[in-house]
Amino acid sequence: MTENWHQNFKSKNREALIAAAKVLFMKQSFLNVNIKDVCSEAGISRVTFYKHFQSMNELILEVQVEILKNMTGYVKNAAAADMSGKEMLASMLEAWVRYASLHLGYIKFVLLFDLHYEAYDSSKELKEQYDLFINREKEQHFLLDALQIGYMDGTLKPDPDPLNTAHFIFVSMMSLLQKMSLVSEADQETAQSDLRFAKRFVEMLVHHLST
């Protein structure tokens, strides 16, 4: 029991550090946040920080992975078992736009992470860890089931390489949503215009892939 309590306590400290980092990263570029800032926000000592993360880069990577997992999980949950492949794809892409509109800060973080990833002064092990995560997610792409079901039930055009199509959709959608994330909160007119554009893009994409 004592061992379980200790493990839960360690887990809560780790979660608190990640949550604190996310709060700070949404307020400013993660390049301007340091370990002291995160510890202060989380109410956790620097010594405890190093029990969970070897560096700030490791924490930044953890936040990136968590955001991507949460985003893709939200999108996947929009698909229901009784839907056709086309309905699944449309519902998932619409949910993706909805997620982005609710979490523009997260989308912007992903953009900044991607832009600075190669420039990180991080260890080879961290880069290998992230590359393994990305490759695994690509091979088990969250859009693949909807595409394959659509090919089988005839609601989507046959495709000899559905995994490549899933990758294309991901890159296209993220590029569009990342553009949305760069609009200032005060510029509501542009934000609403970008949102309408994203929804229109989803309609065009689904229409193009449909039979």
TrEMBL record:
<keyword id="KW-0238">DNA-binding</keyword>
<protein>
    <submittedName>
        <fullName>TetR/AcrR family transcriptional regulator</fullName>
    </submittedName>
</protein>
<dbReference type="InterPro" id="IPR009057">
    <property type="entry name" value="Homeodomain-like_sf"/>
</dbReference>
<dbReference type="InterPro" id="IPR001647">
    <property type="entry name" value="HTH_TetR"/>
</dbReference>
<dbReference type="Pfam" id="PF00440">
    <property type="entry name" value="TetR_N"/>
</dbReference>
<feature type="domain" description="HTH tetR-type">
    <location>
        <begin position="11"/>
        <end position="71"/>
    </location>
</feature>
<dbReference type="GO" id="GO:0003677">
    <property type="term" value="F:DNA binding"/>
</dbReference>
<feature type="DNA-binding region" description="H-T-H motif">
    <location>
        <begin position="34"/>
        <end position="53"/>
    </location>
</feature>
<dbReference type="InterPro" id="IPR036271">
    <property type="entry name" value="Tet_transcr_reg_TetR-rel_C_sf"/>
</dbReference>
<dbReference type="InterPro" id="IPR050624">
    <property type="entry name" value="HTH-type_Tx_Regulator"/>
</dbReference>
